[in-house]
Design brief:
Elements: E1 24-27, E2 33-36, H1 38-45, E3 50-52, E4 59-61, E5 87-91, H2 101-116, H3 122-125, E6 130-132, H4 135-148, E7 156-163, E8 175-176, H5 187-192, E9 197-202, E10 209-214, E11 219-227, H6 238-263, H7 268-280, H8 284-307, H9 313-330, H10 334-349, H11 351-360, E12 367-370
Parallel strand pairs: 8-9
Antiparallel strand pairs: 1-2, 3-4, 5-7, 6-10, 7-11, 9-10, 11-12
Length: 374
């Protein structure tokens, strides 16, 4: 490590402001970037997903594939500053990265090969680099995994990471992940490039932010807190609690009526009605399920209005989809769902408090540890 890049102690790490109300910048073929709000993104997403370039007027088909850097002057572009910042990672592992990280990776590959009956390419066989990013990217990674990777009910941990990297061991600028994928980069590839960290544009979480693919050896210390941090949850106001009780009563009535329909013996008339319903695809059970969906949508809307105020509508949508998967997987009752919703929402609405809890190590089950040689 050179003198221009001394690792900061965990208590001295610089925090960057975390916000979940950000917009985007989209690249045009003319080479310029055009601003796009999160509301604008959703508004035209299901229509044509197009905006006019603010520089040349050409139509841009926007999305992850043309997402540009949100801040061209991001301080993380300064190689000598990277080790001064706190970086974040979310994981289902309480000991990320484990001391036997590389051997466990190899074991997973061998298991997959035996199960699927073929060998993976050498690119995948090598242990992958670890990834750290902004606070927003770490939280959104958790939501994506809950929604898309069967982790809806998994326990998640948020890590605050201190790095020790020489400025000369980081790539200049950043890799455009859409053109040169960074998510699968291996430790061997980092080594071949003469790097300990590869900076890249994140187009999956906190789109337009900068993340790092790193060698485990540059981790100097870790602080961790389980999510959600329950004592940061906003209380339910009386009006919201009353509304949830009303919706719960409606749900109970709907479910009771559905059970009663299933228990009634078929009379000739009821059998005829059932056959006619099956022809149209609208059966009593279908109607009951649709009614339950509609009620739960109202519950989510009520909770979002109170607990996700000021959050980007795009992030709100991802959050609600993740929480709906959590509810269905657990078959959670309404009060349990509302409590978990409020607790996890604080991760978005009170990021500075979560960061402070991590930095001070004062949260429930919070811990810190020095780096382990991997």
């Amino acid at each position: 490590m050179t003198n221009d890049q001394q690792p900061a102690e965990s208590s001295d790490l610089q925090e960057r402001e975390a916000r979940f109300d950000y917009g985007f910048r989209m690249k045009c073929d003319c080479g310029e970037l055009s601003d796009l709000s999160a509301a604008g993104y959703i508004e035209r997403e299901s229509l044509d997903a197009r905006i006019a370039c603010s520089h040349c007027g050409t139509s841009i088909h926007y999305g992850r594939a043309v997402a540009g850097i949100r801040d061209r002057h991001d301080p993380a572009l300064d190689n000598s500053a990277v080790a001064r910042f706190a970086w974040y990672h979310s994981s289902t592992s309480p000991d990320w990265p484990s001391p036997d990280y590389t051997s466990r990776f190899a074991a997973r590959v061998r298991e997959a090969e035996l199960r699927l009956g073929h060998r993976y390419g050498t690119h995948i066989e090598r242990a992958k680099a670890l990834h750290v990013g902004t606070y927003e990217a770490a939280v959104e990674n958790m939501l994506r995994r809950m929604r898309d990777q069967d982790d809806a009910t998994s326990s998640f941990y948020l890590y605050r990471v201190s790095l020790g990297i020489s400025a000369g061991r980081i790539n200049d600028g950043y890799r455009e992940a859409n053109n040169e994928p960074a998510s699968q980069i291996s430790l061997d590839e980092l080594q071949a490039l003469g790097l300990d960290a590869l900076r890249y544009l994140n187009t999956h979480e906190a789109i337009g932010s900068l993340s790092l693919a790193i060698h485990p050896r540059v981790i100097r210390s870790l602080q961790v807190v389980p999510l959600p941090v329950t004592d940061l949850a906003a209380p339910q106001p009386p009006a919201l609690s009353q509304r949830l009780r009303e919706l719960e009563a409606e749900l109970d009535s709907l479910q009771a009526a559905a059970r009663e329909q299933l228990q009634v013996r078929d009379s000739p008339l009821q059998a005829l009605r059932r056959r006619m319903s099956e022809r149209t695809g609208v059966t009593p059970s279908t109607t009951a399920v649709e009614g339950e969906w509609a009620l739960w949508e109202q519950v989510v809307a009520e909770l979002s209005a109170h607990h996700l105020h000021g959050i980007s509508p795009l992030v709100q949508r991802d959050f609600c989809h993740a929480l709906e998967d959590w509810r269905r997987s657990r078959e959670a009752a309404m009060d349990e769902f509302a409590s978990f919703f409020a607790a996890l929402a604080a991760t978005l609405t009170r990021p500075s408090d979560v960061m402070q809890r991590l930095a001070q190590g004062t949260g429930p089950a919070n811990g810190s540890r020095g780096s382990t040689k991997l």
